[in-house]
C-alpha cells in the first residue's frame, strides 16, 4: 500500500476540490458501512461551512492509486475533562454517526492505512478518540482485528443503545406489533382532532423546484420553538443554515435526501429531514409547531415517516440518531443500534511514541480510577 504519494489533506477554505470529491463519491457507492454524514454531499457541505476555526484533516487510505478509505479527523486540545491532546474523528454539532467511509472488502487495509498515517504524523498527538461507531459494524470489527494484529491498545470507553427501524413488516403491521393499543388509539384521536382545524396534508419532497422553499420552511419552523430560544436551531447561525441548505441540495441531486412535512391549511406544522446512504438512512432533524403541541405533531410526522420508510423497498433501515432513552422515538421503534466510543493507541518513534504511550496510559488510568470511585469496578 503506497501512502507516501497520497498525503493527508488539511481542509482550507473550500476544502478538497471537486475532483477529489468525485473520488469520494465513487468510494461512498461501494462503502462497507453506510454513513450519510461522511457521504460526499453532507461531508462536502460541512467542510465548506462548518470547518472554519477547526483543525480538520481528511485522511485518505489508498491501495496503489485506488482510494479505499476516508476518515475526517480533528485535533483536540482536551479529552473530555482531561487536559490531554488527542486526535478524534470529526463529529461536528450536526454529525451523529462517525464511521469512516471504507470500500467494502478493504476494511482492514483501510484502517491499516489510517493508523499508519496517524502514527507518522507529527501533528497527531496523544491517541485516536473515535466516537459514534456501530459496535456491530464493519468498522468496529476491522479495527478490533487490526489492533489485535498490531498489539495496539484499544479501549472501549462508552456505549449506549439508540432506536433504529429495521423490519420486514409493513408500516401498519409494525405499528400494530410495536405500539401499545392505548397509544395507537390516542394518536388516532389526535389526528382526527387536528383534521377538525383545517386541511391536513402529508407530503414527501419530490420536486427539485420545491427544495429551497422546504428548506426555508424547516429553518423557520425549527427556530420558532425551544431550539430557537436556546440558540441551537440551524437558523440561529448563518454557517449552520448554509450547511443545511448545501447538504440538502447536494443530497437531493444525488438521490439521498428524504424530507417529509405535514401541512395544516398549507402551512408546515411538522417536518422531518433524513439523509440516505446505501440501503440505509439517517434521521437528521425534526421540527414542529410547538403551539400545536396538544396534537403531538412530532409523533404524527414520525408515523408518516414510518409509512414512507416501510413503503420504500430501497430503504432497508433507518438510524434515529437520537439520544439514549429518547422517550418519543424509543416508544415507536423497537430495534436498537449500539453506539460506541473507542480510545486507540497511536505508535510512532522516539519522543512521539513515548508521549503517545504516556497519554494513552494516563487517560486509561484516570478513567479506571473514576470507575472505582463510583463503585463500578
From TrEMBL:
SUPFAM superfamilies: Acyl-CoA N-acyltransferases (Nat). InterPro entries: Acyl_CoA_acyltransferase, BioF2-like_GNAT_dom. GO terms for molecular function: transferase activity. Keywords: Transferase. The keyword Transferase applies. This is GNAT family N-acetyltransferase. Residues 181-303 form the BioF2-like acetyltransferase domain. Pfam families: Acetyltransf_6. It comes from Sphingobium limneticum. It comes from the Bacteria. The keyword Transferase applies.
Amino acid at each position: 500500500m503506497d501512502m507516501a504519494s497520497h498525503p493527508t489533506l488539511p481542509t482550507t477554505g473550500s476544502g478538497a476540490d471537486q475532483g477529489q470529491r468525485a473520488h469520494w463519491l465513487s468510494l461512498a457507492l461501494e462503502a462497507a458501512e453506510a454513513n450519510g454524514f461522511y457521504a460526499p454531499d453532507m461531508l462536502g457541505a460541512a467542510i465548506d461551512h462548518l470547518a472554519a476555526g477547526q483543525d480538520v484533516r481528511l485522511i485518505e487510505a489508498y491501495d496503489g492509486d485506488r482510494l479505499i478509505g476516508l476518515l475526517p479527523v480533528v485535533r483536540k486540545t482536551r479529552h473530555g475533562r482531561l487536559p490531554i491532546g488527542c486526535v478524534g474523528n470529526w463529529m461536528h454539532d450536526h454529525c451523529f454517526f462517525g464511521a469512516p467511509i471504507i470500500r467494502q472488502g478493504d476494511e482492514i487495509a483501510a484502517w491499516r492505512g489510517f493508523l499508519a498515517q496517524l502514527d507518522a504524523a507529527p501533528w497527531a498527538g496523544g491517541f485516536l478518540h473515535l466516537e459514534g461507531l456501530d459496535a456491530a459494524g464493519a468498522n468496529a470489527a476491522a479495527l478490533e482485528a487490526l489492533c489485535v494484529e498490531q498489539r495496539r491498545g484499544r479501549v472501549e470507553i462508552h456505549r449506549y443503545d439508540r432506536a433504529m427501524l429495521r423490519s420486514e413488516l409493513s408500516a401498519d403491521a409494525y405499528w400494530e406489533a410495536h405500539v401499545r393499543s392505548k397509544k395507537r388509539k390516542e394518536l388516532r384521536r389526535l389526528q382526527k382532532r387536528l383534521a377538525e382545524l383545517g386541511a391536513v396534508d402529508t407530503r414527501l419532497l419530490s420536486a427539485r423546484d420545491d427544495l429551497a422553499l422546504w428548506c426555508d420552511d424547516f429553518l423557520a419552523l425549527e427556530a420558532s420553538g425551544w431550539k430557537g430560544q436556546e440558540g441551537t436551531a440551524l437558523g440561529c447561525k448563518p454557517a449552520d443554515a448554509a450547511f443545511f441548505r448545501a447538504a440538502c441540495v447536494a443530497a437531493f441531486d444525488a438521490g439521498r435526501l428524504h424530507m417529509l412535512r405535514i401541512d395544516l391549511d398549507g402551512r408546515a406544522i411538522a417536518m422531518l429531514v433524513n439523509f440516505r446512504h446505501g440501503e440505509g438512512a439517517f434521521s437528521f432533524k425534526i421540527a414542529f409547531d410547538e403551539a400545536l403541541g396538544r396534537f403531538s405533531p412530532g409523533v404524527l410526522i414520525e408515523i408518516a415517516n414510518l409509512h414512507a420508510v416501510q413503503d420504500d423497498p430501497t430503504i432497508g433501515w433507518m438510524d434515529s440518531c437520537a439520544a439514549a432513552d429518547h422517550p418519543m422515538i424509543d416508544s415507536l421503534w423497537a430495534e436498537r443500534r449500539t453506539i460506541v466510543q473507542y480510545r486507540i493507541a497511536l505508535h510512532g518513534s522516539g519522543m512521539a511514541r513515548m508521549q503517545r504511550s504516556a497519554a494513552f496510559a494516563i487517560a486509561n488510568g484516570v478513567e479506571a480510577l473514576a470507575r472505582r470511585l463510583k463503585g463500578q469496578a
